[in-house]
Design goal:
By secondary structure, this protein is of the alpha/beta class. The protein is 25% helix and 20% strand.
Length: 118
């Protein structure tokens, strides 16, 4: 089984990167790949509760993150420093995550076969 990490680095709205990253994660997991997600920099903004992207004319793919457990995607990591940079706390996030430091993220990325950045 291949280990795949999807790294969310860009903001959720204004581009299709986030939606494509999520689609790839779900598709890969459905083909029995071991998928993990890492959110850094602006990517942490995907996880904020109660977003309403339809108000800016965007599709709401953000709510699909709640389906991760159905695809056995249990490894979801968020950069502690990125949360602090945006003034976010664990309680403001819409899904269960593991908050980690930069060193833990680097160690995780070394353990996977492929890293795809969105």
């Amino acid at each position: 089984m291949k280990k795949l990490c999807i790294l969310f680095r860009c903001s959720p709205h204004g581009t299709v990167r986030g939606r494509e990253g999520l689609d790839l994660a779900l598709l890969s997991a459905s083909f029995e790949q071991e998928v993990s997600l890492v959110f850094v920099d602006e990517g942490v903004l995907h996880l904020i509760k109660d977003q309403q992207p339809e108000l800016i004319g965007a599709k709401d793919y953000i709510s699909t993150f709640k389906a991760l457990p159905l695809y056995d995607i249990d490894s979801v990591f968020v950069c502690k420093q990125s949360l602090a940079d945006y003034g976010l706390s664990h309680s403001l996030l819409s899904i269960p995550v593991t908050v980690v430091n930069d060193e833990a993220i680097a160690a995780h990325l070394k353990q996977v076969d492929e890293v795809l950045v969105f």
